[in-house]
Amino acid sequence: MRECLRSLKQNHKEDDAKVKRAFQTLLTYVGNVARNPNEEKFRKIRLNNATFQDRVGSLHGGIEFLEICGFEKQEGGEFLFLPRDKADMVVLNSAGSELNSAITNPFFGIL
Predict the structure, then answer these.
(1) What is the pTM of this model?
(2) Which of 15, 27, 68, 109 could form a disulfide with 9 if both were Cys (CB 3.0 to 4.6 A apart)?
(3) What is the block-wise mean pLDDT of the chain (111 residues), using blocks of 10 residues?
């Protein structure tokens, strides 16, 4: 998980603001599911959504991070979906911690 975020930061190190926005967006997705695991709307992401593509989908490692959290491509690759029975709170909380570290630690991805 940490390695995926490190890789995302390294692959886009020329645009720190974009990386930070991606991390914050990923934190929102993960946090929404952790707080509301029974709400399907938080466990389903349309891959061709313009905002998602701009903030996460177009960055190498963004979708991979969500897949590590349990999201799976569905319906002909149109959605990322996290089945309720695969919403693992330990994994989601760990993802949240890693993202918080990535956002707040100025040395994240360097060491």
Answers:
(1) 0.94
(2) 109
(3) 94 93 98 97 96 96 97 90 96 97 89 61
